[in-house]
Amino acid sequence: MSPEIPNTLSRPRPRRRAGRTLRILGATVVALVVVLAGYGTYSYVAHLPAPGTTELVVYTYPSFFGGGCGSNLSSVLAPFESAHHVTVTLECSATLLATLESERNSPSADVVIGLDEVTTPEAVKEGLLVPYAPPGLANVPSDLVRELDPGHHATPYEWGYLSIDYTPAFANATHGAIGNATFTDFTNNTTWAKGLLTEDPTLDITGEEFLLWEIAFYENVLHQDWTTWWKAVAPYVRLAPDWQTAFDEFSSPPNNPPMVVSYTTDAAYAAASGAPGSLNGTVTSWGGTSYGWRSVYGMGIVNGSAHLGLDEALLDWFLGGTVQSALPTNEWEYPANDTAVLPPSFAAALAPSGIVPLDDTMTPSGIAANLTGPNGYLDTWQALMNQYG
Predict the structure, then answer these.
(1) Is there a shared CATH topology between the 23-160+296-347 domain and the 161-293+363-388 domain?
(2) Is it the case that residue 120 has pLDDT exceeding 80?
(3) Tell me, what's the pLDDT at 12?
(4) For 219, which DSSP code?
(5) How many CB atoms lie within 10 A of CB 78?
(6) Distance in angstroms (rounded) separating the CA atoms of residues 38 and 18
(7) Under a CB-based contact definition with an 8 Å cutoff, are residues 68 and 139 in contact?
(8) How far, in Å, CA of 83 to CA of 333, rounded?
(9) Are 136 and 316 in contact (CB under 8 A)?
(10) What class is the 23-160+296-347 domain?
(11) Are the CB atoms for 241 and 200 separated by under 8 Å?
(12) Considering the entire predicted model, what is its pTM?
């Protein structure tokens, strides 16, 4: 009998990283970030700067490094703090980009950790980051740098592929076909379309990345209008406001959907948690090739920081073995430094070497130009859902 998803895996990775959560509020979010800071917008690592040290303030996302605003990171950062006589203070926001935008004229942070291939281009376009190319980039694949920011305003520290996770029961029902699925399977089969749960791209960064995955596949692999897919599935596909809500629903039988947009490393987490085979995912296949969307997570120096030398040293430290070797089982992503050794559980995930990243068909500047604004991808998607959903 195939394993089902055990309750212990209902929250395999306390994501999502900060990006564009609650984008639908638009400028209201930006205006409220500062006002609400004293009312819990941020959570802080519980330690004060040590006497006689310089404080480096790092903005990141609440679930960073296993949750608790990176509280598990203290032991990893201790050698850096000692060597440079600094105290690293992590401050967490659910809207990293909006926070940086709101503080552009008087930034409180020195470094930001958690921008990605979607939000980094916007931060670069708005002049929020200072370029820096750490020496450790020699151990980082050049395509990760290219997909994040070829101008080095942000440095990759981890990455991973989106997937469509599916239940063992659905794999059995489709005689394994879901494991080699493609986007057109959902347009040709309403049962598949009704069984898919994805995140709303106007509210959640995972949903945005899934939208870009679909657009890149239709435009650059099928050479067809990307809106064709959404017109076909809009009446059936289910939407969640964020990744956590979607995954919780997927993990809650008996009425859970058979598929959810998530990450290929979910299978690695399941294996590490003693439930191998309970979580599996697929990318999309065509002509014998697997195509996926690669999320690349970056760290950058905030424009206006008064500690540029220490900021650069911190980015250097994050690309080193101490931090990079700790990322896989805390972030459940791949370390950017390709000399870091992966834990055995990662063998359960789809081999990333066999996936063609569709990010390479879009430039960061192209994403920034086409995603938002009138007639951008998000506006077009919303209009389609209003019409066909």
Answers:
(1) yes
(2) yes
(3) 41
(4) I
(5) 12
(6) 19
(7) no
(8) 28
(9) yes
(10) alpha beta
(11) yes
(12) 0.89
